[in-house]
Amino acid sequence: xxxxxxxxxxxxxxxxxxxxxxxxxxxxxxxxxxxxxxxxxxxxxxxxxxxxxxxxxxxxxxxxxxxxxxxxxxxxxxxxxxxxxxxxxxxxxxxxxxxxxxxxxxxxxxxxxxxxxxxxxxxxxxxxxxxxxxxxxxxxxxxxxxxxxxxxxxxxxxxxxxxxxxxxxxxxxxxxxxxxxxxxxxxxxxxxxxxxxxxxxxxxxxxxxxxxxxxxxxxxxxxxxxxxxxxxxxxxxxxxxxxxxxxxxxxxxxxxxxxxxxxxxxxxxxxxxxxxxxxxxxxxxxxxxxxxxxxxxxxxxxxxxxxxxxxxxxxxxxxxxxxxxxxxxxxxxxxxxxxxxxxxxxxxxxxxxxxxxxxxxxxxxxxxxxxxxxxxxxxxxxxxxxxxxxxxxxxxxxxxxxxxxxxxxxxxxxxxxxxxxxxxxxxxxxxxxxxxxxxxxxxxxxxxxxxxxxxxxxxxxxxxxxxxxxxxxxxxxxxxxxxxxxxxxxxxxxxxxxxxxxxxxxxxxxxxxxxxxxxxxxxxxxxxxxxxxxxxxxxxxxxxxxxxxxxxxxxxxxxxxxxxxxxxxxxxxxxxxxxxxxxxxxxxxxxxxxxxxxxxxxxxxxxxxxxxxxxxxxxxxxxxxxxxxxxxxxxxxxxxxxxxxxxxxxxxxxxxxxxxxxxxxxxxxxxxxxxxxxxxxxxxxxxxxxxxxxxxxx
Length: 698
Hints:
Elements: H1 2-13, H2 16-20, H3 22-44, E1 61-62, E2 67-68, H4 70-82, E3 88-90, H5 92-114, H6 120-129, H7 138-145, H8 152-167, H9 179-187, H10 194-207, E4 212-214, H11 216-228, E5 234-235, E6 240-242, H12 250-258, H13 268-291, H14 295-298, H15 300-321, H16 337-347, H17 350-367, H18 372-388, H19 396-419, H20 426-458, H21 463-469, H22 475-483, H23 485-505, H24 509-518, H25 546-566, H26 571-579, H27 587-596, H28 617-633, H29 640-656, H30 667-684
Antiparallel strand pairs: 1-6, 2-5, 3-4
């Protein structure tokens, strides 16, 4: 099953369209977001309870977040609104109308009393028509006819005075029953006779109306304003809502609903908010990869590998977070953040490892209820892991990094425990230290175990695997040494040249060296057909046709690829082998074919390598190194000037033939490579003095 998986991955690697497909890249980001969402949504959403009013709480419930206590807030607002009294507006027109009605009534009575033409019945009818809102009783109206005319002005004046005095105060509908008392008090100061006072009293009473009019709109506005000024009653995170064994009353149940802790109140806003958090986190990663031009952002296979590392690290956090329910309060110190950052740093680059340390620390906060001590310790551990393996050369460096992380964990955990020392027990502190040590060592062990699988599955070359391939004890190199020693020696020199050249143009020196070691392993199939392995002067090519010699020579590329695939060498090494001759021409055999040709049918393209041309810097560098080393080695006296001349000639030929058109080497890079070649070759082929023979002893 694993071999099928590796074969499938290789097919994806060989497809440029799939590797660079934007739609596939977006799909990977979307799937990553979905996986992270469902991994952590259970940690974000609080536990919900099937309780109702009157239920007994089976355990203590604390508020998982801040929320507004709607019931308490509503009660507080209703109380504030209840304190606002009814609002009234004073109506001065009421007093004016009362005085006008009194004056009008007395004028009517005085007029009919003075008119002899009026009979008693006419007078009563006229007074009845002038009756104030038909409030004066009939017998009171008749009593006005018995009042002497000269007494009417005094009564009128007194009635107006009493009315004005009463209206000088605020009169509400609710205070109307006390008007009689006020009238009696005012009449106590009157000089009128008893009968006249009683008549005036009844008359004034009929015109008294409330001068304070209820303003319903203003009252409602005041109450609304008072309610708005009441701050919401808050339920704060960590607040105990109900203790174990307590009965849930209406107030408690209302709080549970406000916190979305009941089955009937799902917190859709929290679902949406966490989805936004995951999307933003993945977008930060995506924008970083796009803006920095990272190889991960351009290669969907590498992006898939990165996504797998992220999901594995997040899954580790999820599993560990379940340990909190088992009573391990400090299990968050075990989070495998350093594992994720070390894998990313080794497989990709240090900058990406630093970014992932930050993202993983945030995921730690999600997994462990936003506890700062876990976030801080995991972030520091992730950074330390990144820096500790940034220049890894062998697997023991990873183990050493694990011990470094463990040591740093002890320091950071101690700092965090000191910050919360008020509630820290010695046993809990010791447990935290133990988890910190285990975290460092465990992440190193897991990293060492997972790394080879990721390297082989995704065809990623790391410095570790390159150094392992450069070991002379590798089966393929040992076989090359035994069966084609000349080619082996040639490959070593090409490796030195390639490493020196790669350093000056920003290519991968280690990849160049290792690629050079394996670029000619195909010559082992027919070693004597290659001049560096011919110990005698007999050349097998003298006995075969030039076309056959061409097939034999060019077949070493195909044979080398087969051998490398058999030994499961990484794809970049195989690419260097396949591309190190490009589509160059075997001029020796082409010229030999021309000499033997009688019909003029020889085509120069029939004597080219199959290619392809070098597609990346390292392959182009090995091509140039291979040609230059072979040319310089064939020289009788390789002086510096002659070496320089050969280097420039080979570079010019490769440029004119278009062999460097498909890689990203510039002319400036070629100048630097030429200088590096010259320095290295002068060191190898420098002039030597001839040592004299030792004198013979008697």
